[in-house]
Amino acid sequence: MTHLQGRLAVMGTVTRITFRKAILLAIACLGILAGSALAQGELRFCLRSEPKTFDPLQVQDDASAAIRYLTGGVLVRLNRQTQALEPELAQSWKVSKDGKQITFKLRGGVSFSDGTPFSAEDVAYTVKQLMDPALHSPTGDSFRSGPGNVQTDIISSTQISITFPAPVAGLDRQFDQVAILSAHSAKKEMAVLGPFMVADYKPGATVLLKRNPNYWKTDAQGRKLPYLDSIKLDIQPNRDVEMLRFKRGEIDLINSLDSEYFDKLAVTSPQLVHDAGPSLDSEQMWFNEVAKSPLPAYKKAWFRSANFRRAISAAINREDLARVVFRGHAQAAVGPVSPANKFWFNSRLKAETHSPDAALKLLQGEGFRLENGTLKDMGGNAVVFSIITNSGNKYRERMATMIQEDLQKIGIQVNVVTLDFPSLIERMTQTFDYEAILLGLTNVGLDPSEQMNVWLSSSENHQWNPSEKTPETAWEAEIDRLMRAQASSADAKKRKESFDRVQEIAVEQAPFIYLVNRNALSAVAATVQRAAPVILVPQTYWNVERLTIERQTATAAK
Amino acid sequence: MKLWRTVACAVLLLVVSVSLAANWLAPAGYARQYREAADAAPSRQHWLGTDEIGRDRFARVLYGTRISLLLAPAAALLSTLMAALVGGLAGYLGGAWARCAMAVTDLFLSLPWLFLLITVRAVMPLNVSPMVSVLVTFLMLGLLGWTSAARVLCSTATSLRDADFVRQARASGLSGARLFWIHVLPNLKPVLYAQFWISIPAFILSEANLGILGLGVAEPMPSWGSLLKELEGLVSVGEEPWKFVPLILLVVVVTSFQLVLSRQDEVAA
Predict the structure, then answer these.
(1) Which residue from A247, A320, A434 is facing B126, i.e. has the nearest CB?
(2) Is B33 at the interface with chain A, CB within 8 A?
(3) Per-residue b or e along A157-182, where b marks 16 or more CB atoms closer than 10 Å to that residue's CB
(4) How many Å apart are CA A324 and CA A516, to the nearest integer?
(5) What is the pLDDT of residues B116-132, one digit of tens each?
(6) Does B34 reach chain A within 8 Å, measured CB to CB?
(7) Residues A185, A188, A192, CA angle at the centre, nearest 5°?
(8) Which of A170, A336, A496, B22 has the smallest count of CB within 10 Å of its CB?
(9) What is the dihedral of CA B80, B81, B83, B88, to 10 degrees?
């Protein structure tokens, strides 16, 4: 308003301009003013659930992780496009050869959103909170490599050394998830170092983020980042509504778009949709190999046979799953690691070729025979099993139905069962009363150490046979050894060799039958400038500090 | 009204006949996946197009109609018989029997159906063939759907118990069971018929709701419920109108049942 009055006063001094021209000029000035005041605008998109916390160290859910990404300042940041680690609040860092210690040289002259200066004390405080057993930080779990305390040494106000009791795999990359807290601010976790800060929160409705006035980063021209004034996050669990709102222009982007919606949008607005290629997420099925499960002995024998599992794998037409269920927006999975994970993917592995003949051959080698179109084992038992998946997930239900038809071609009868998620989890982890399960795995991190809980035979999340006291098979013992070896080494080459072998064993033994890797699909409105969707989370707004909105300029022009 | 009832009867007859002729009208069956033509629009080969994994929608509608239309009356029959047994006897016997039976009925009525069905599905054996899953679904509906009818029948039987002709029969020395079978039950018939006809559309809709929730009839077998699930992801009505055929069919059948029922209501009254 003050700006407006000033402009009109200037206009008043121009005596030769006629009244009509003055009115036109005033309208133009108003337009320019409106444009410049909101030049960078507000980005709007949906969170699919209520954020459970604003404490960056307690983040477990996707909504809270999104807010942490937008508000948290980190020492190092994984570039979502190049998958390389880049300096942020730390100008440089060094990891010791034994993988136990990391030393950061911090950026000077940086302040939190409330003006509190940032120093090594804040990093020490954050690490203390992160590793405090009483606080149970989920982010801290990946740093807990062994018993003992973590030691922080403040060398100077801009230099700090952190020593862990045991080597931490991919130590520097783990700090991508650690938003630094202020040791001295009265605002606690609401004082942030990231590009935005939480300005307003209406439970069940919206989270409003405003530009952090003290954000340290500038662009190449020396302009302060972020460009955007604010971000409005609407809490909207319904994807249909999210899609409709995007079509109406009420929100600017959608992450993780369904392939059906993607194709529908692509018909009308192909410039708005982005297929970034295979993501890290995989869809997979596995058989119950738990010795104490209530299954009949002959079924346990089938499921514990590697050749049986490999035959099932060979009989499944993954190309069809990718093409039909995901409308071509997925790729046949190769193994435990998606090809999207550039460094850790074992490029020697190839996707299993669909071959019912090869499947039958493998089964015949195990004593199975085909009688009148029904596959029977050595004891004359017809091969019948059920595949459970979670009800409500139409993609998994469709995949299970297609697998049902694929396996029928080799004489196997599959019963598809959809269960509510709690019942499914209870069968999977408590009663072990199931035969096969089809579920997906969402991978956020790139490093194999994040999959330790799946591969170690003693782990509760070793889905096909959890919590083994000692490895029940030689190949599981070998995977245990290799995973521990890669986790305790700081040598990237040696780690890669170990994890490559883990991937090979996983494909040879097929404890998981990997089906497809879904593509990272997203939609970005034309009003959002500089968006470059990628496969890593958060796909569309990973470069949020450089995004701008052209909506206001367009309005002014109108 | 009579004309509309005749039309409704003709529609129901036509729908049942066409669904029974599914083997001839759609010889490829409901489960065959034409994967090269998934989610296709209507064509000469696929009159109502194909579903997301390439199954012929016309065939699935026919077979689904057969399942929903044949098993819903079976479930309705079961629930009506149970209602007659519990409600009719309670009303006829009266006293402690009636109080006990109505307490059980109230208990059943107060149960949260949805959670009960989810629990039943969760504890059921997993290796159940699709055909068995169909039977189990409608059996569950029949076993759980008798309560409202039982209350109606109880009050009717109570009024019959005190009717003059029943008193006279009792005074002439007719025994309890014989009295019930000869004098009470035949007089309950109009109410039983009405309850039976009312239950059919209710069970069709219940199965459709269960199908949407992922309970009910197992893949690859179709039912109206599983066919209606296709409508979940539709953003606009005009996008793929052929997907609405199962919904239109459901509305037409349920409306036809209601029109036929209006006659039964008159009889019951």
Answers:
(1) A434
(2) yes
(3) ebbbbbbbeebbbbbbbbbbbbbbbb
(4) 12
(5) 777 777 777 888 888 88
(6) no
(7) 85
(8) A496
(9) 120
Concatenated DSSP letters of A154-212: EEETTEEEEE-SS--TTHHHHGGG-BPPPSS-TTGGGS--SSEEEEEEETTTEEEEEE-
At residue A331, the 3 state secondary structure works out as strand
The amino acid that residue A141 corresponds to is D
Convert the pLDDT of each residue in A35-83 to its tens digit.
343 347 899 999 999 999 999 999 988 999 999 999 999 999 999 999 9
Looking at residue A41, the DSSP 8-state letter turns out to be -
* A contact set with B (CB within 8 A): 240, 243-244, 247, 258, 260-261, 264, 320, 323-325, 327, 384-386, 388, 391-392, 394, 397-398, 400-402, 404-405, 413, 415-420, 423, 426, 433-435
Best of B35, B39, B226 to mutate (most A CBs within 10 Å, chain A): B35
Distance (Å, whole) CA B154 – CA B91: 4
Token pair of A386, please? 């059920």
The answer to whether A281 and A514 are in contact (CB under 8 A) is no
Torsion angle of C-alpha atoms A55, A60, A66, A68, degrees rounded to 10: 30
Distance from CA of A385 to the nearest CA of B (A): 6
The alpha carbon of residue B210 is apart from the nearest alpha carbon of chain A, in Å, by 11
Give the angle subtended at the CA of A50 by the CAs of A47 and A53, to the nearest 5°.
110
Half-sphere exposure of residue B163: CA atoms within 13 angstroms, side-chain side:
18
Of A327, A386, A392, the CB nearest to B214: A392
Q: Is A483 helix (H, G, I), strand (E, B) or coil?
A: helix
Residue B214: pLDDT band with limits 50, 70, 90:
low
* Residues in chain B within 8 Å Cβ distance of A419: 121-122, 214
pLDDT one-digit tens code per residue, A434-465: 999 999 987 777 889 888 889 999 998 899 99
d(CA B159, CA B154) in angstroms, rounded, equals 9
Q: CB distance B232–A324 less than 8 Å?
A: no
Q: Does B233 contact A385 at a Cβ distance shorter than 8 Å?
A: no
For chain B, give the mean pLDDT.
Answer: 86
Asked if B220 reaches chain A (Cβ–Cβ under 8 Å), the answer is yes
What residues of B are in contact with residue A394 (Cβ under 8 Å)? 52, 229, 232-233
ipTM, two decimals, is: 0.83
